[in-house]
Specification:
Blueprint lengths: L1 E5 L3 H12 L3 E5 L3 H10 L15 E3 L10 E4 L3 H12 L6 E5 L12 H8 L5 E8 L4 H4 L5 E6 L3 H11 L4 E6 L2 H23 L4 H21 L10 H12 L4 H12 L3 H6 L5 H16 L4 H11 L4 H9 L8
Parallel strand pairs: 1-2, 1-4, 2-3, 4-5, 5-6, 7-8
Antiparallel strand pairs: 6-7
């Protein structure tokens, strides 16, 4: 199939290689001339990875080149997703499957990303929307280490198509039709990953991180079920699976952001100087504001918000969490 990838970043490149390994016609579109030249001439993407990538992958700076797509995979930051989709939707000639691989919420409307695609791409250009999400780091996929994710969609046939497109000996795809639960789980776990990094940054250990992930999962589940997700989804790949990998790995930008903030015992300098995409920063604001509007208590998210946006010292945020009113676990 003709797969057109929007974005030449790390995750788009890793997924392009999975598709190329599976024999598909893969073309990446991007705006970074250096990355495009790397992919076409040197068969690498040296900004993100050491070594070479599949020489079957091509790249272009011309958005018009995606017009013949059978499937469009959007691998751009959440902040850019809507504007890129608008461009792409005006170019494609066919009614295609749109795959989202970002994790987060729209920065203004706070809507889930499949909702953003549905509102941005006209129905005559849209066969179905599938989110390909789960516990996965590009740094491992690019060297073909074992990875398992979900193809999430209300359209079972499209989810199965995406499942077959990507699955191979090192990349296994399951299906899930709980779009609300899955998209909420993978977005909110980024907030918990920031909190996990903060814990390490201020000198806490494994006990604290185990507690953070456990209570974080309870918080994600409580919020996700209230929004319409199924409880069992949060015990799967898009819940506890993604939570574990993001809260424990230095491949995670969200964890590393928290680590820097924790070491400084302040978010001020990080927020001023950070140039990387840290989706948990935006997800935290979206979920915090939504939780306040609907009256649900999310203690960890509230403290991360206070650190990121209100100048609270991380060490004080942790103390305040520990001094909350004592209660039963469930």
């Amino acid at each position: 199939m003709k797969i057109r990838v929007l974005g030449t970043g790390s995750w788009g490149t890793a997924l392009a290689q999975v598709l190329a390994d599976n024999g598909h016609d893969v073309l990446m579109w991007g705006i970074n001339a250096g990355e495009i030249e790397d992919i076409n001439v040197r068969h690498c993407n040296s900004r993100f990875f050491e070594g070479t990538i599949s020489d079957r992958i091509r790249a272009t700076a011309e958005i018009e080149d995606i017009r013949d797509a059978d499937v469009v995979l959007a691998a751009v930051p959440v902040m850019a997703l809507e504007s890129v989709l608008q461009k792409a939707a005006g170019i494609v000639e066919n009614k295609v499957i749109w795959i989202n691989v970002a994790k987060g919420f729209h920065p203004v409307s706070h809507k889930r990303l499949s909702e953003v695609i549905a509102e941005t791409v006209p129905e005559e250009k849209r066969e179905a929307i599938v989110s390909l999400i789960g516990p996965s780091h590009a740094e491992e996929v690019i060297i073909r280490l074992l990875t398992t994710v979900n193809a999430v969609s209300e359209n079972e046939e499209a989810a199965e198509t995406v499942q077959k497109l990507f699955s191979n000996s090192y990349f296994r795809v399951y299906r899930n039709n709980d779009v609300i639960g899955a998209e909420t789980g993978v977005a909110l776990k980024n907030v918990m990953a920031i909190a996990s990094g903060i814990l390490e940054g201020i000198g806490q250990g494994d006990n604290a991180r185990a507690a953070l992930m456990t209570r974080g999962l309870a918080e994600i589940t409580r919020y996700g079920v209230l929004k319409g997700g199924r409880k069992e989804t949060f015990l799967g790949l898009d819940g506890v699976g993604d939570l574990i990998v993001t809260c424990t790995s230095r491949h995670s930008r969200n964890f590393m952001a928290g680590l820097a903030i924790g070491k400084a015992n302040s978010a001020e300098e990080f927020m001023k100087t950070n140039k990387k995409t840290v989706e948990g920063i935006f997800a935290c604001k979206a979920v915090y504001e939504d939780a306040k509007s609907i009256g649900i208590e999310l203690p960890i998210t509230e403290q991360v918000y206070a650190v990121l946006y209100e100048g609270k010292e991380p060490a004080k945020a942790v103390i305040d969490l520990m001094h909350r009113e004592l209660k039963a676990e469930n």
